[in-house]
Amino acid sequence: MTLTKQGCLLLILVGAFLSSGLQAKEPSLFDVAHQKMKPNVYTNIDSMLVYQNNKLISQHYYGRFNSNTTHRTHSTFKSINALITLLAIDQGLLRRDEFALPLLSRFAKPTRTDRRRQQIRVKHLLNMTSGLACDEAPGSNGPNHEFGVDEGQTPLQYSLDIPMSSEPGEQWQYCSANSFLLAASVSAALARADRENIFEFADKYLMQPSEINSYRLTKSANGKFLNGQGNSHFIPNDLAKFGLLLLNQGMLNNQRLLSKSSIESILTPVMPINWSFTSNLKLVQQPVTKYSNQWYHTNFELNSKSIATIHSWGNGGQYIFVIPSIDAVVVFTGSNQGDFLKQQQPFDIMHKYILPQLLSKS
After folding, report:
1. Same domain? 303 vs 180
2. Residue 195: which domain range?
3. Confidence (pTM)
4. N or C: which end of the chain has fewer CB within 10 A?
5. Which of the 8 DSSP states describes residue 219?
6. Both 275 and 347 in a single domain?
7. 58-80 residues labelled b (16+ CB within 10 A) or e (exposed)
8. Model confidence over 265-294: pLDDT tens digits?
9. β strands within the chain, DSSP E
10. CA-based Rg of the chain, rounded to a whole angstrom?
11. Do 204 and 274 lie in a common domain?
């Protein structure tokens, strides 16, 4: 049997079609990571979203969660709380160098006398360097004041009365009271200027311009203050918008929400912290995690490259990753509360799958 020219051409076209179809079915590393959620290689991860060049290029949800389900953010809200604070600074409502106690005195005053407490400034609360005798880091020996701040009936007084252990600005200690006092300082600055309350301020100048509507901020147990230390609820796509705001130097939806200097203060690491999120990765060199303005800085070592990443962290595995060098934002939410080892799973996923795939596209 002889093939006509038309027949040969048809076979070539069919072969090309089948070949392209096979190539299209080659799974991306995003898909490989997604498949590893199903047999529980990675456990209790509730969502995984990837943005590059300001576009959502991959999203997966697990268990009872979907794209419209709000998720408790835990301490990832500390990072969002910092954005609210920086908005207030940009508007001239308070200053980084402003002393915190005179500002907060309209609400409460400390009952303990300590010269060092008088030296706490807004910038120390932003950077967790207030000098309060408090250490709530994973594996630390404390003292832990989280319950008094989260559940106490007088959380501001409680936070103001935590003993001092060092001069403000000298050392970094993870402490929820810093973030609570930061939000209370913004509330005091708004009251001083006869402005709206902090909930209205955050909605008007951060949430609405970002087109964030499905969210819930929580109040202190006595109903008087924003829980700046955590426990708010957002959908994962909206969490990504905070990352995109950093990535785009304070711009979102063609609007400037934060000044370039405020964004730069987040993107510039200030203090080394006393633990690493990548301690379980088999890296030649373990990067030191640093901190600035309620955001973390962790470098991933990959193919002889050091990839700088700015990120939040919330109990259970809530993360907003911002990777400026490849124009990417990655969001994870999870339900591994209290298990710091499992909360580090997203760093393994980032190292093995997300970053290699993003680098291949850059």
Report:
1. no
2. 76-234
3. 0.92
4. N
5. B
6. yes
7. bbbbbeebeeebbbbbbbbbbbb
8. 999 999 999 888 998 887 767 778 999 999
9. 45-52, 55-61, 71-72, 215-216, 233-234, 251-252, 255-256, 271-272, 290-292, 295-302, 305-311, 319-323, 328-334
10. 23
11. no
